[in-house]
Design a protein that fits this description.
- By secondary structure, the chain is of the alpha/beta class.
- Helices cover about 35% and strands about 15% of the residues.
- The protein has helices at about 5-10, 50, 60-75, 85-95, 110-125, 150, 180-195, 215-230, 250-255, 280-285, 305-320, 325-340, 370-380, 400-415; strands at about 30, 35-40, 45, 100-110, 135-140, 175, 195-200, 205, 215, 235, 260-265, 275-280, 350-355, 360-365, 380, 390.
- The strands form 4 sheets. It has a 7-stranded mixed beta sheet, with helices on both faces.
- The chain is globular.
């Protein structure tokens, strides 16, 4: 074992990991395309694109060149009272890509912070009008991040933050109105809490880390109608679904529903560095325009609009414009459908579902997550199941043979029980 690995493991704290019992993490030497090359020389096909960030695969030369150019010119400058070309160009391009009237972009470093900014904007928009509405209506199976405010809008029962119940600000939570029963329950929450709801927050079409649960566009149209009836903003958390993951550039386009706020991150920079954005409608932004300085949005992440990250994001958008990534996502969906279909007849499989570059095999339960993850490594792939979900979210550029190998590994491991 190399010295850096041996010494460093004694000091590092890994995410979502019980450090006392977890097996040692795999040491990575480099990445390329859809491959993770380990220090011991093994190469793993990456089935989740580093938590679905590396949408163009790893080490894309166009993004690398853009970052190198920006590094030579200006790696960072504060965004308070100053602006720079990469950030303003990126804001302009994002506004052009998103449906009207989403046009004002607030940059941050992480997806969780972007969601917190969205919640803060919604609540302050009421406070600026002299009204005290401080609750965010959220949904069962939802996940929006690990910071304190975002933990409060995750599923409090099934999510990973149940331990913090009682320590978090309580929010009204409802089932997604998928059918008559859930629609009635949703209406009941609206009736009980409508007077205090500042906004409705949802992951459009796919609830990601909460279980990769899909819902049809009709659900989002019901939420749009409910938000309009209450007169509150509708927030779409597109941190998972944005940038081609569902087969459209943004899930709101695929659903045909326009929110008042959208949050973006993950694949925004093509998986190269941290950047997020909260994009707000012009009407909502207007509620912060005032002669009163207290009506300003008092928020400012230190590294917001980092020029390196903005340069990477601009280069990533170049690739969406020049290479038909959305067609690639749709082709991946067809291949995932075919490749994962054999799982439908396997013992313990509850459901198999695909949308865009998302493939999901839902199991009745997973007895030993660590063992299952190791079984995938033994098959030469990097797949990291969560709870009872085995999922694939590969790079949109993944080759057909690599994608087939991922599907074959899922079928084999699930079929053999790990």
């Amino acid at each position: 074992m190399d010295e850096w690995l041996r010494d460093g493991l004694a000091h590092i704290w890994l995410p979502y990991t019980q450090m006392q019992t977890a097996p040692p993490p795999l040491a990575v030497a480099r990445t390329q395309g859809s491959r993770i090359i380990l220090e011991d020389g093994r190469a793993l096909i990456d089935g989740i694109a580093s938590w679905w960030t590396a949408c163009h695969g790893y080490n894309h030369p166009h993004i690398a060149r853009a970052v190198h150019r920006q590094l030579d010119n200006m790696p960072h400058v504060m965004f308070g009272g100053l602006v720079h070309e990469p950030a303003l160009r990126l804001a302009t391009r994002l506004a052009a890509l998103l449906p009207d009237p989403l046009e004002r972009v607030f940059f941050a470093e992480s997806g969780s912070v972007a969601v917190e900014v969205a919640m803060k904007v919604a609540i302050q928009s009421w406070l600026n009008r002299g009204q005290h509405r401080t609750k965010i209506l959220c949904f069962q199976d939802g996940y929006h991040g690990d910071t304190f405010a975002t933990m409060a809008v995750c599923d409090p029962e099934e999510g990973m933050h149940a331990l913090f119940r009682g320590a978090l600000a309580e929010q009204p939570i409802a089932p997604l109105p998928r059918d008559d029963a859930s629609a009635a329950a949703f209406a009941g929450v609206l009736q009980a809490h409508g007077h205090e709801i500042a906004a409705i927050l949802v992951e459009p079409l796919v609830q990601g880390a909460g279980g990769m649960k899909f819902h049809p566009p009709e659900v989002l149209r019901r939420l749009r109608d409910a938000a309009d009836a209450l007169g509150v903003p509708l927030i779409f958390d597109e941190i998972f679904t944005g940038f081609g993951r569902t087969g459209a550039m943004f899930a709101c386009e695929l659903a045909g529903v326009v929110p008042d706020i959208v949050t973006l991150s993950k694949a925004l920079t093509g998986g190269t560095m941290a950047l997020s954005a909260c994009v707000v409608s012009r009407d909502l932004f207007a509620q912060f325009q005032s002669d009163d300085p207290q009506h300003a949005l008092m928020h400012g992440p230190t590294f917001m609009a980092n020029p390196l990250a903005c340069a990477a994001a601009l280069a990533s958008l170049d690739l969406f414009a020049s290479d038909d990534r959305l067609a690639q996502a749709r082709a991946i969906e067809a291949r995932l459908e075919a490749g994962l279909a054999p799982c439908r007849g396997l013992p313990g499989v509850v459901d198999v579902r695909c949308l865009g570059a998302i493939g999901v095999v839902e199991l009745a339960h997973i007895a030993d997550l660590a063992a299952l993850r190791q079984a995938f490594v033994n098959q030469g792939v990097w797949i990291r199941p969560i709870r009872n979900i085995v999922y694939l979210t590969p790079a949109l550029t993944i080759g057909a043979a690599e994608l087939d190998a991922l599907c074959d590994a899922v079928v084999w491991v699930v079929g053999s029980g790990g």
